[in-house]
Amino acid sequence: MAAIDTTGNGVRQWGLLARERIIAKPGFNRWLVPPAALAIHLCIGMAYGFSVFWLPLSRSIGITKFVACPDQTLLSALYTTSCDWRVVDLAPMYMLFFIFLGSSAAIWGGWVERVGPRKAGVVAAFCWCGGFVISAVGIILHQLWLMWLGSGVIGGIGLGLGYISPVSTLVKWFPDRRGMATGMAIMGFGGGAMIGSPLADILMNQFRTPDSVGVWQTFITMGAIYFVFMLGGAFGYRLPPAGWRPEGWAPPAPGAKVMMTHGHVHLRDAHKTAQFWLIWLVLFLNVSAGIGVIGMASPMLQEIFAGSLIGHPDIGFTHLSDEQRRMVATIAAGFTGLLSLFNIGGRIFWASMSDYLGRKATYDTFFLLGIVLYASAPTLAHSGNTALFVLAFGIILSMYGGGFATVPAYLADVFGTQFVGAIHGRLLTAWSAAGIMGPIIVNYIRQFELEAGVPRNSVYDVTMYVLAALLVGGFVCNYLVKPLADKWFMKDEEVAALQAQSQAAAGATRGSMGIGEWRLDATSILAWLAVGLPIAWGVWITLSNALVLFR
After folding, report:
1. What is this structure's pTM?
2. In angstroms, rounded to a whole number, what is the distance separating the alpha carbons of residues 180 and 176?
């Protein structure tokens, strides 16, 4: 197929992945875009569940037992072919995920805006699923550096591109329900591990042999499954025609209760504003508090409640027998799964609520309620009331997830929708920073308390107060977010030129007749079943495992 210059500026558009190919035609149903976004986010969300592979991989040579090497270091682990990897050697991949997610989203966010979500989704599929294949080769050759490169670096780039690919699109399709739309998509990222972790466990058990722990075969299989789903999501994306609005909807009038700009800030200027960095800090502080808890949820419950979880409140963690420790660990796994459900549910609940409360008020709720819950956590822990403790942290994790889902709409309210995807990509560097800061706070304070002789059931008390203090800082930053001055917005002519260029690239002005209207047909049913059934299965598995908490 010959390349045709349809933009008027010398840019030649090619084939199925070109932006102009996905401008919606009359009759398109905007409710097909959320399941397309979910298809991608449910796949890349498995990044949260990669810890399911650590223990099997730590026996990839010994199969039934760990084969140790004397004086093994992280550097030697990268190249050794005769020693099993330690969990501490594998865990940095988790950090690489979020470092490269944030950095790739920041670097290529502008590119995603230019080329459109379909091309970005396809590239994300090749990176994320290709990372699985490279990691599988690394397992076969027993080369840890290949796993770091495959899943950590290349897969991390796929995470970033896949994460931001639907944001701008959904905001433009749902100007009347920005929070709900982005919440539905980003809910998928939180739910990816809920589906992927039990699936990985089933596959590893299926592929396990006397000579293999079954991980590399699982990587290949999951990579293939994810590739199909991600391509399906990418090709399901459509963009609304320039200037499209839902029938009967008008933006809130200036001075209305909800802070929503009518202008658009250019990507080149967004990071020059105080508002960008205040929202950056809002996300950073909210995520730092939550992500540290996620990483330590299982040991935290075990160390605080220990024997109380199995009906022996007089037995502390250090006095549990091996059998009792296994029972307690099983219950703690249920706690972790339940937190995952709250994380997922919070993404759609709080993001949808923000459409009514306003984005700023929603973040005020996160911080004020979070301060109270974190500060109360030590009291709840020492009261021995497991149910209240679990509920408190469930609410905390719902607001952690809600913070991710609400921030794209917050950015659209403040900076407009023209470059919101790219601006969101730059803001995700806050996630990368929080992914380092949060675990450091929780882990180092815990270790300091243990070395000081603090009892195990009290080692998290100081941590909770520190996390509450982080949220105080977040509340102050959110309070300082104000509407932008007029000087930051693009001129109407500049916006019109950009939108006209995009419209010209589509070939012609198609109008908006019938675009976006809800329609229940076979396509809609199949699209929602494709993502709804895996989510329902993951919820059922998670709830089944979490019931042990209340027996």
Report:
1. 0.84
2. 9
